[in-house]
Structure formats: structure tokens, C-alpha cells
């Protein structure tokens, strides 16, 4: 009888942190594609200036709060 040498299990996890990914259910809503305004330049349609929008538009004065 030919005895095979005892080998360590071939499937070994690398010594790294376990993945934080949890199993998702198939009917779980996908939240990976988030719609953000990041990178989109705001343009105020009141004074037509970039950097802010009409929500943050505070009159056409150039007053600065100090
Ligand atoms: Zn403006």
C-alpha cells in the first residue's frame, strides 16, 4: 500500500484582513450607482456666475461678511 504524504490543504486564505463585503440578496436594491453632483460645476441662473447656484445666491450685492 502506497501511503501518500500528508499535505497541507491547498486552499489557504492569504494572511489578510477578511473582506468587508457582505452577501447581498438578489432582490436588494443596488446602491452602488449614486447620483451625485460632485464634479458638476454649479452655475447660478440669477447672475450667471459659476461656483454657486441660485439657492446660495444672496442678492446681487458684493458684500462680504466679516
Ligand atoms: Zn449668483
UniProtKB/TrEMBL annotation:
Organism superkingdom: Eukaryota
Region (Disordered): 1-38
Biased composition (Pro residues): 1-12
The protein, known as: Uncharacterized protein
High-level lineage: Eukaryota, Viridiplantae, Streptophyta, Embryophyta, Tracheophyta
Amino acid at each position: 500500500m502506497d501511503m501518500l504524504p500528508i499535505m497541507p490543504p491547498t486552499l489557504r486564505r492569504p494572511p489578510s484582513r477578511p473582506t468587508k463585503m457582505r452577501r447581498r440578496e438578489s432582490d436588494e436594491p443596488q446602491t452602488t450607482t449614486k447620483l451625485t453632483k460632485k464634479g458638476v460645476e454649479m452655475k447660478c441662473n440669477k447672475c450667471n456666475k459659476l461656483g454657486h447656484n441660485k439657492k446660495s445666491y444672496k442678492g446681487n450685492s458684493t458684500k462680504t461678511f466679516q
